[in-house]
Amino acid sequence: MTAVQPDGCPIINAFKSNKDYVEPIEKPQTIAKSLAIRDPADGIYALEVIRKSGGSAESATDQEILDATKLLAKTEGISAEPAGDVAVAVLKKLVEAGQIPTDEEVYVALQEAGSRP
To answer: Which terminus of the chain has a smaller tally of CB atoms within 10 A, N or C?
Structure first.
């Protein structure tokens, strides 16, 4: 399992700093507003799940999110909500870094912009 958030968000910061707690961030600054949560209520549990699964955590910059938005539109004809674009941006980053093989089958669940589950 890989957890994703925009740069500067608390769960990823805690994971990368190897902390057992999540420090609130006064005003997370990102275009993915639905993920800009100052103090996630279940942050400590998210850290636990990531670690118990042997997973990782990675963030995406606003520019990487915008690039993912364009990539999805161009390759799939999908206009996703920016929070979904974070997952695509991180997936792209991990593939380019060689952390996910290019022939690996990966699933990313997205919600299209303006749709409801």
So the answer is: C
